[in-house]
Amino acid sequence: MATTEHPLDRLPDELLLSIASHLPPAEALAFSLTNERHNRIAGESLRWRKRCLSGWRYGRAPRYRPTLVKNFPLVEPWRQLFETRQATDKKAEAIFDDLLQSQQGRIRKMEEIAALGYDVKDLLVRWQDETPDDADDVLARRFYASAILDLIHRTIAIDIWTRLAKHDLKIKLTEALGAYDLFVLNGKWGDIEDIHEELDKIADDIPGYCGLLEWKVYDKKERALKIAHFLRERNMLGNPDGTAYHDLRNNFLSMALFAPPHTSLPLQSVALYCAVAQRHNINAQPSNYPGHVYAVVDGPWDSPDDDGYIDLADDIPLRSSGSAHTTGQRIYLDPFNSAYEVAAIHLARGLQDRRLPAGQVAALMGPTSVAEATRRAGRNILRSAQSAFHEDGGPLAYETATYVGLWNAVLLGDGQVRTRENALEQSRLYAAPLLERLLRHFPQEIGLAEKLYASLFPRGDEGSSNQEPHPMDPSEEIAAFRVADDQPRTPKTRPTADDGSDIIKYRVGQYFEHKRYQYEGIVTGWDETCKMPEAWIQQMRVDDLEDGRNQPFYHIIDTHRNARYVAQENILPLTEEPTGDLITKIAGRYFKRWDSEACVFVSNLKEEYPED
Question: Which InterPro entries does this one have (predicted)?
Fold first, then answer.
């Protein structure tokens, strides 16, 4: 039986290649499957590379980052990569749709998506930022996409600090400090790779700023000073207007690099300066000086033989340079305040006035370690978090800042302990408030807590005598949380009075104001009567209420993400549509969207409250 030739088959390869290159990715893939010739033409690496780079920005490998694609040309199996990424996205979409539909196993499903890592980051960013306002599940889709992004980023950050705690010398300063940014990133521009690329660009601009001929003849000391002038002239260091010194934003490298007005604390200013200087083969490191951070810049100051630029993926490791100090080839800079050299004698006298021993003065005048600089940043964040206590929502809000500071304190300690046993006990002390915040605000990160507590509270081998749990070990609480997540929800039927009226006046999703304390909140559940322990009832003076303990009580979440338990008589329904973080950061955990006609949030807890 004769086969009929398709008109396309009469075209030369060049025209078929042009046609295939203009097809959308899915259609190009279908075209490649029609026959052997089309498969060969559509499989052209250049075309599939273009589709990969236009379809995804992030990935486990750097091949998806356009700025690095020059290192991954035609030899890469671009078509295979495209098909793999499509399959990964499809898998993540199926799990995501399932978790939106059912309360059962939501945290486990979030972990399954997060385990795919940066290969699903593009998809999650799209759901978080581009879900239409009129989508049926807009709030839930945005919330859970954002929460999974947080889990991906924070897993990376905790791995960095865990390796740093184990004295991994490959961890660089911008990586260790950039881990803080991963806790507040939410898919925005400014992860560790973005920070490195931006520092590379800044370093590239400096020779042109100074004049290429002049730059070639500068010795390293002159270059160190010119770099400080460049960064301060571009307003990339310090806090120029001198206000809001302890603002949370000043603690994060990505804020200093990408978010005007580019303000930072001294440690972050020095870290950015050192990272740029190191890219020009200058040994610049943050100081160990108390009270303020300086840049310690060590010689020798000979003019370099090459162009003086090192194309680094990151800054070089911090290292001690005692020989430079003894030969006088060390200078100090304060890039937070100026671009000029600080007199070493002035700094030394400041320490000597404290009557410190000579050995301690020398140590404090020298460079710090990556671990100690990271601890110092953590302490600054906790200090800034206190001043931000009353800030509303936001990615740099009090609870998130306290949470990231606690993670760092648990993993790295305060650097003062002398034995492993003391370090372990110190970490255990920080671990209790960490778990409390995790379960209250970030329950999807329970897997991170499981790994942490397994290391803090080892049980010993099966059958050994060391099976007794530590009194601070929360493993049973975590296990119970896991079981509860995977259990089907028991439906609660709304009770009615003898006359057929509703005993429970308000439904899940009711937006309200507390009559007595005037805070706003949303109902997330209810009980027919007060179900709290007697001690709580007495402490809260429930029996002093007009209807006492035998009225309905409501589980609610307030605008500061606090879970509360409120008596029915204190609920004052609100009808206006709420705005800001109440919707984007809170409501999506429990609700699909806001219903403007009914003036309530549409419940996403139907398995537990099917009639609400």
Answer: F-box-like_dom_sf, F-box_dom, Hemimethylated_DNA-bd_dom, Hemimethylated_DNA-bd_sf, SirB1_N
Per-residue DSSP letter, 2? P
Identify the CATH number of the domain in which residue 587 sits.
Answer: 2.30.30
Contacts with 1 (C-beta within 8 Å, 6 or more apart), sequence order: none
- Ramachandran region of residue 314, left (φ > 0), alpha (ψ -120 to 50) or beta? beta
Contact partners, residue 328, CB within 8 Å, separation at least 6? none
Q: Which two tokens stand for residue 524?
A: 């997330």
User: Structural domain of residue 565, as residue ranges?
Assistant: 511-603
Residue 445, both tokens: 């990160």
pLDDT band with cut points at 50, 70 and 90 for residue 63: very low
For Cα atoms 90, 96, 99, give the angle at the middle one, nearest 5 degrees.
145
Residue with tokens 């302990």: 417
- Residue-wise pLDDT tens digits, 292-313: 999 999 988 876 544 444 444 3
Task: Name residue 557's beta-bridge partners.
Answer: 522, 563
Residue 186 confidence (pLDDT) = 76
Q: Which of 296-300, 306-310, 457-461, 597-601 has the lowest mean pLDDT?
A: 306-310
Clarify whether residues 424 and 561 are in a common domain: no
Specify the pLDDT at position 51. 73
Q: What is the mean pLDDT of residues 495-505?
A: 91
Q: Kindly state whether residue 379 falls inside one of the protein's structural domains.
A: no
SS3 state at 567: strand
Beta bridge pairs of residue 510: 600
Q: Is residue 140 part of a domain?
A: no
Residue type, 139: L
What are the Cα distances from residue 127, in Å, to 139, 322, 490? 10, 52, 30
Q: 537-562 pLDDT, tens per residue? A: 999 999 999 999 999 999 999 887 88
Q: Is 452 domain-assigned? A: yes
Query: Which neighbouring-strand residues pair with 502?
Result: 496
Residue 264 is classified by DSSP as -
Judged by DSSP in three states, 603 sits in strand
Question: Do residues 341 and 234 both lie within one domain?
Answer: yes
C-beta contacts of 532-536 below 8 A and 24+ residues apart: 532/565
* Contacts of 489 by beta carbon, 8 Å cutoff, 6+ apart: 103, 104, 605, 607, 608
Residue 50 and residue 78: Cα distance in Å, rounded? 9
| CA–CA distance, 74 with 60 (Å, rounded to integer) | 19
Q: Which residues contact 502 (CB under 8 A, 6 or more apart)?
A: 494, 496
Look at the chain and report how many structural domains it folds into: 3
CA atoms of 335 and 235, how far apart (whole Å):
11
